[in-house]
Amino acid sequence: MDIEAMIRRRQRPDEESRLVAGYEPLSPATHVEEPTDRGRLLEQLLDHLDPVFDSRLPPHGYLYGPKGAGKSAVVTALFARLDHQTVNPGTAIYTTTRVEPTRELRFVYVDTRRHTSEFGFYHTVVDAITDEPVPRHGISTDTLRTRLHRRLDASGAGLLLAVDHVGESGSAAAETLVERFSALPSSVSWLAVGRTEPDETVLTDYTAEAIRVGPYRHHVLVDVLLRRAADALNHAALDDDAAATIAAWADGDAHDALAALFVAADRAARAGHATITDADVDAGFDEVPADCVALGRVFALPANKQTVLRALLDLDPADRETVTVATAAIADETDLAAGTIKRYLYELAAVGVVDRMQTADDGDQGRPPSRLEPSFPPTVFRRLYDLEG
């Protein structure tokens, strides 16, 4: 526990609760600067990246594992640290025992949940390695691709890309990324990050190594929960037994464990509890769907789709019985056109962010009505969305 965290616990944003000091540390979509107990994975990644310490690019790689295993947390933290040491004088990644660096290396992270299009992909990369702002309008994908080639050719720099969430529903497909990678300069190496097994993705046809990360072990996940709680909750709000119960239920999935803890803490705060009770924990379990969609994917959606989701969560069950009924209800609460709302709802269902749960057939001909249900914990999205707004 550091002094800053202890101070934050006492800086309550309102008087709603003396239990929760801040919700952000509990968010499954929040990545900390120092991931908890992922030393082995860091060592594996550093073994793969070892050539960069001699100013050389490593071969292409593929990192894979299940949801909630800490892949994104570790990769974002590692690439941010390596790039910081590259571009800041006095913090170079090269040591005195290594050869004198012959080229600059840059490290860029691309989230394909947020940047699914080819334009978004290149814009992210070019914007990360240039000092001047890159416009989002009035510029073509071909121009961005050309600018990337010229920038690397002129500087002689090498570029290592971490491309995350590949192959997920709503993200860039592996086959699409292979085409994009083939158009990159030879001075670029990539590390793809996904959930698919190596023998089920075309990406490994182009990689030298596949690195597997497994689910969190029970005691490690308990530590993750206690550390996040220490930054978010007042002292002793979450005891060791409650953390162990949540970790056992989540079965190695840190995302779902944090989501359940978030819901439990929110329920306890609204009830005025001094600590998180067993009933609060059970409520957290009840709200996390069996095949929970990652909150990071939900918050990567365009702003208008998030607006539709937020309005959907406040509808009475009767107003979610069909897409048509939900569309009309949401249109009354937002400035979006009904046609746009309906299209968004179908698109959100197509990528699994909402489920269309088939309701009882009333005997009429045609498809039975389908009730709209979120595939993520509504309390977590609602609270974080409202805080950002």
Would you write up a description of this structure?
- This is AAA family ATPase.
- Pfam families: AAA_16 (PF13191).
- Residues 38-184 form the Orc1-like AAA ATPase domain.
- InterPro entries: AAA_16, P-loop_NTPase, WH-like_DNA-bd_sf, WH_DNA-bd_sf.
- There is one protein chain.
- This protein is α/β, with parallel strands linked by helices.
- It has 3 domains: 3-31 and 216-287, Orthogonal Bundle (Helicase, Ruva Protein, domain 3), CATH 1.10.8.60; 39-212, P-loop containing nucleotide triphosphate hydrolases (Rossmann fold), CATH 3.40.50.300; 295-388, Orthogonal Bundle (Arc Repressor Mutant, subunit A), CATH 1.10.10.10.
- The protein is 46% helix and 11% strand.
- The chain has 15 helices and 7 strands.
- It has helices spanning 3-10, 39-49, 71-87, 118-129, 141-155, 174-182, 218-232, 240-250, 254-271, 278-287, 295-299, 303-313, 323-333, 338-350, 378-388, and strands at residues 61-64, 105-111, 158-166, 188-194, 209-212, 354-358, 370-374.
- Strands 2-3-4-1-5 form a 5-stranded parallel sheet, with helices on both faces.
- Helix 6 links the parallel strand 3 and strand 4.
- The protein is globular and about 60 Å long.
- It starts with a helix and ends with a helix.
- Residues 12-16 have low confidence and may be disordered.
